[in-house]
Write a structure and sequence with these properties.
Helices cover 70% and strands 4% of the residues. The protein has eight helices and two strands; from the N terminus they run H-H-H-H-H-E-E-H-H-H.
Length: 138
């Protein structure tokens, strides 16, 4: 039997090295909420993602320690580093979603699939999708 890392070769190793999907989902959520309202609260994040407030609290501690967010007790703010990274994640999401939609995938399905795919596709695949979307938008 082959070791797991030989089954998918470099792709498997790349996926393992990707940033934590959960953290990326929180960053993306905070970015979108901050565009809708001046203040982002833990309860808003919990509702949007569909998790408990203690789960949000745990994620916020990790994101704070990583330098992506700051909190003042009631509100969550993206740092410059966090905003930049969240924007990258959201760009990946939108690009993958649009690419799928351009290939006939229903909008809701394309959006849901993009939520998963944005975390695991290689940079090379993402650049191909981005190029395709840019050159084929109507």
């Amino acid at each position: 039997m082959l070791p797991l890392d030989n089954i998918c070769g470099k792709v498997y190793n790349y996926v393992i090295m990707k940033h934590n999907q959960s953290s990326e989902d929180y960053l993306e959520c905070i970015l979108l909420l901050s565009k809708e309202s001046k203040f982002v609260h833990r309860v808003d994040v919990a509702r949007r993602i569909g998790v408990s407030q203690p789960a949000v609290q745990k994620a916020i501690k990790i994101l704070t320690a990583s330098g992506y967010v700051e909190c003042d007790g009631m509100h969550i703010y993206l740092t410059a580093k966090g905003e930049s990274y969240a924007a990258e994640i959201y760009d990946r999401h939108c690009t993958v979603r649009d690419f799928l939609a351009m290939h006939g995938v229903e909008p809701a399905v394309a959006d849901a699939d993009a939520c998963e795919m944005e975390h695991v596709i290689s940079d090379k695949t993402f650049e191909m999708m981005k190029h395709y979307v840019k050159n084929n938008k109507s």
